[in-house]
Write a structure and sequence with these properties.
mainly beta; Thrombin, subunit H; Lipocalin; five-stranded antiparallel sheet; 2 helices; 47 strands
Length: 544
């Protein structure tokens, strides 16, 4: 964004915030009897719990103050289990699933997280893992996806309610409506050959008896990010329409399951090459999600790396209303903005990459789990008329660089990496431009909205600017870090080494935590705490 900002004012803003920083205060710190090789961080609340464990024993403690609720060796807790190969907490049900895997003789025990009592055990569910279990809080039951069927069991007793072989695969996502579950299936990574007779299904299931009221086929493969495991799909119910947001949009009739219409594309194109030694790799956010405005739906046709189009559909009928001219040579289009009578495409910019890297050398084997953000070129900004898809304008300002942008009302805010812009959506003209060099936090990697401010995440810290004229408000230096989330007035940042900073966006002061070697860190779901696990020590740190 660009207006002429007083150097004196900018310097004052920086000086007032530059040293406003401190270590994250410790809510509590405890040392337990065994190492925290596996951890589970629960929710906040007077009756909520968390756990640490190794292969032989587990300690469950109160999330609020670290007080031990119970601790036990697994072999004493469940004598039938010789070892704990895997376990998974289902927090809503207060249950911990513990698995002892033996070929053809898998053992399962379900334990009450609150008191350590064994709720039920089973040897019937062979090949079961946490990826093919979901909890249904509406009926206090679990759906277990087995090789040839799905089974519903009561959460507290393990009693089987029903079983059906008409639905195959794990439940990717479900909606509870009118006493039924509408779900679509998926094959978790590593379990592709587990489900016999698998096919893509979306189905409506009667929860009382497992009867399939209808089933239909969907297109595409449900995916999760390779490291953070965030789903790249969603399922929504709007009136009598089911919206499956997977590789675009697929619309089904809720009452009959009939496929009404779809507009699909490849949502994870490999626009960036995988790093050396990558055993798993993904590129995310390279293709903008469909944008719906009333009964109009705008979808990218992103089938080839060099030929992209925008298509407009009627939401009610799925009728294709128009196709834009080709957006030439665009490798990535991370954002679509619809403002009044214009649909604006951000060409290139910041995309997310995730990689699991495993390399073996004479010195040994190393593993890395990397979440990164990279800039894809070419860059640009193009607009099309919403009435007929005809070309409207092309901005020359972003040919050399773009990070991302956002729209507020009729205003469009874009960052080139070196400057912030307010763009006139009608013709692409510049309302203002601000060089961000004087911010003192390096080039921008991302911009965010906070109240009436533009938050600029830089290579060396964070700065805030007024939306109205782009003038600098506050700035503070930090390490190279990525924005995790905004919670109220706090921007949470994390570095590649898992150091955390919690920036107060009202003044750019921050609290920080530097991770110790070989420790683990987790951010609480509400963003108010960072958990640090180091050997036998657990620390709960406040982000504000």
């Amino acid at each position: 964004m660009k207006s002429k900002v007083s150097i004196l004012a900018a310097a004052f803003a920086i000086s007032t915030a530059a040293f406003a920083q401190d270590d994250m205060p410790i809510a509590w710190e405890k040392k337990y009897e065994h190492k925290s090789e596996r951890v589970g961080t629960g929710l906040e609340g007077p009756n909520e719990v968390s756990y640490i464990a190794d292969d032989k024993e587990i300690t469950v403690y109160k999330t609020t103050d670290g007080t031990v609720v119970w601790t036990s060796k697994f072999k004493e807790l469940v004598p039938r289990l010789r070892k704990a190969d895997h376990f998974q907490a289902f927090w809503e049900s207060d249950a911990l699933f513990v698995f002892d895997y033996k070929t053809g003789k898998d053992q399962l025990a379900v334990i009450d997280l609150n008191n350590g009592e064994v709720l039920w055990e089973s040897t019937r569910y062979q090949g079961l893992g946490s990826e093919n279990i979901i909890y249904l809080p509406e009926v206090d039951a679990f759906l277990l996806s087995l090789s040839e069927s799905i089974t519903m069991v009561k959460a507290r007793t393990g009693e089987e309610v029903w079983e059906t072989s008409a639905f195959k695969g794990s439940v990717a996502k479900y909606i509870f409506a009118d006493g039924d579950v509408v779900a679509f299936n998926m094959t978790p990574s590593g379990l592709v050959g587990f489900f016999k007779g698998y096919k893509n299904q979306i189905a409506r299931i009667d929860l009382s008896n497992g009867d399939i009221k209808w089933q239909s086929a969907y297109v595409g493969k449900p995916e999760k990010k390779v490291i953070t495991k965030e789903p790249l799909y969603d399922l929504k119910l709007e009136g009598d329409k089911l919206l499956l947001m997977l590789n675009g949009i697929q619309v089904f009739d809720f009452n009959t399951g009939a496929a009404l219409w779809s507009a699909a594309y490849e949502q994870t194109p490999k626009v960036i090459g995988a790093p050396a030694g990558a055993k798993a790799f993904g590129v995310y956010g390279a293709v903008a999600k469909p944008v719906r405005v009333g009964n109009d739906v705008y979808v990218l046709q992103f089938d080839k790396k060099s030929k992209q189009f925008i298509k407009k559909y009627d939401y009610n009928t799925g009728k294709l209303l128009w196709t834009s001219p080709e957006i030439k040579k665009a490798k990535a289009i991370p954002n679509l903005f619809v403002i009044d009578d214009k649909v604006i495409a951000q060409i290139g910019g910041v995309v997310e990459t995730q990689a699991y890297i495993r390399q073996t050398t004479p010195e040994g084997t190393t593993e890395q789990w990397i979440v990164d953000f990279q800039n894809v070129k070419p860059n640009g900004l193009q607009a099309f008329n919403t009435k007929d898809g005809s070309f409207a304008w092309d901005s020359e300002k972003f040919k050399k660089g773009i990070t991302n942008g956002f729209a507020v009302g009729s205003d469009l805010y874009i960052c080139s990496g070196k400057a912030l812009y307010s763009i006139n959506y009608k013709d692409g003209g510049v309302n203002y431009e601000v060089n961000i060099k004087s911010d003192g936090v390096g080039n921008a990697t991302e911009i965010l909205q906070y109240k009436d401010l533009i938050v600029m995440v830089g290579e060396k810290g964070v700065a805030t600017h007024k939306m109205s004229d782009g003038s600098l408000v506050n700035s503070n230096k930090y390490k190279k870090a990525k924005a995790m989330k905004v919670v109220d007035n706090i921007l949470l940042m994390v570095t590649a080494k898992n150091d955390f900073a919690a920036f107060n966006l009202d003044d750019c002061s921050y609290l920080s935590y530097n991770a110790k070697k070989d420790s683990k860190q987790e951010l609480s779901e509400d963003g108010n705490f960072v958990w640090a696990y180091e050997k036998k020590n657990v620390s709960k740190l406040k982000t504000r």
